[in-house]
């Protein structure tokens, strides 16, 4: 996406010369000649950079700079002036200017300053996004498995990385959809950050602000302007996990952001552009949700330009020995213990289980085993699996039940959540781990399906 540049300069010849110069370099340039026109543009549009003259017909640049920085914190501004005044330069930098350049303008020198300021802005965005990552996030960059199913996923990752098209990753909870999204971003060569958002973990009233940002005073507690994830993901990737949980009013705003690559912050009118690539993930059938009236059909098609399906762990049991070994090594580093060896009997037990919670559930089971282990081996007695619980839920017998085939998705989901709640003794934290959903999402489903807590 082109960088947007606003030039506020009353010298018509210089203004036009600068417009031509930066348009030739690929910028989207707007030129105005006074303070009021400049503020009008800033109120309606977001710009990556401003070139601001000091002497203007209806005011001076320093006063306008102060107003801009108060209204739009973080706005990149380069001041231009014909006055060789050191004090003025100091005041401009203190007021928030990114740099200060004297006239007559030398285009090569100005271009160098512009490139440096934009690069610093990009790096600042990337640092802000990376500061929100946890050590666990940084480890989730490896896809483990040698089965044909995982080889197919690896090929799709490579093909997807070469494109900017929207990707929809489907699969059961806990199969590693975020890992796939991170790998697509990592191999895409994008300079911006990977910015994940769990749409089910944030209440609907706050999710709009999380995605698109908000202006100061937009709602109670909004004490300052806050950029949203779409802004932070500029030049990078935004990952929308649990997209099937998105409320319908937000679906409309997301559709516009995807179609036009533009949006407004909550409480704002300024049009903000984003070139972030969108990758979404869901454990639901979005088109079944469309038929049920829960999801917009146009958004479902917009998200599913490229589709990658992740197989469940029970569909690739040949990968379990390799996966279990890698998880044990990862967990050992996290809890500061030496990696233990899984016995052949323990591997057999792991391969015999049906893993309704997939890789996430296996990681939890192996974490418990490492915590309780006293020797150098992980034996079957350390694996706290309940064959009568989740295993039965995924057994061939239940799948073959003719009544099961006549149930709706909601009925199947309600029964499965109740089964896991019974299995965990009503422990919501463990239930969330097995199901791979957030606590708010679980509470909503318990209420929706009128489930009981043991």
Can you put this structure into words, describing what you see?
There is one protein chain. The chain is α/β, with parallel strands linked by helices and 454 residues long. The chain folds into three domains: 4-130, 3-Layer(aba) Sandwich (Rossmann fold); 137-309, Rossmann fold (3-Layer(aba) Sandwich); 316-449, Helicase, Ruva Protein, domain 3, CATH 1.10.8. It is 48% helix and 13% strand. The chain has helices at residues 12-24, 35-44, 61-71, 86-95, 107-130, 135-139, 148-161, 177-188, 204-212, 229-232, 248-260, 286-291, 297-303, 320-335, 344-352, 358-372, 390-393, 396-399, 409-423, 428-435, 439-449, and strands spanning 4-8, 28-32, 49-53, 55-56, 59-60, 77-81, 99-102, 167-170, 194-198, 237-241, 262-263, 272-273, 277-282, 306-309, 341-342, 377-378. It has a five-stranded parallel β-sheet with strand order 2-1-3-6-7, sandwiched between helices. α4 links the parallel β6 (77-81) and β7 (99-102). α3 runs parallel beside α4 and α14 (320-335) packs across α16 (358-372). The longest helix has 24 residues, at 107-130. The radius of gyration is 27 Å and the shape is elongated. The two termini are 54 Å apart.
Radius of gyration: 27 Å
The low-confidence parts are 134-139, 387-401
Number of strands: 16
Main sheet record: 5 strands, parallel
What's the architecture of the largest domain, going by CATH? 3-Layer(aba) Sandwich
Spatial arrangement of strands, main beta sheet:
2-1-3-6-7
Number of domains: 3
CATH fold name of the largest domain, please? Rossmann fold
Task: Indicate the overall shape.
Answer: elongated
Instruction: Report how far the terminal alpha carbons are from each other.
Output: 54 Å
Modified residues (4-aspartylphosphate): 53
InterPro entries: AAA+_ATPase, AAA_lid_NorR, CheY-like_superfamily, Homeodomain-like_sf, HTH_Fis, P-loop_NTPase, Sig_transdc_resp-reg_receiver, Sigma_54_int
GO molecular function, one term: ATP binding
Protein name: Sigma-54-dependent Fis family transcriptional regulator
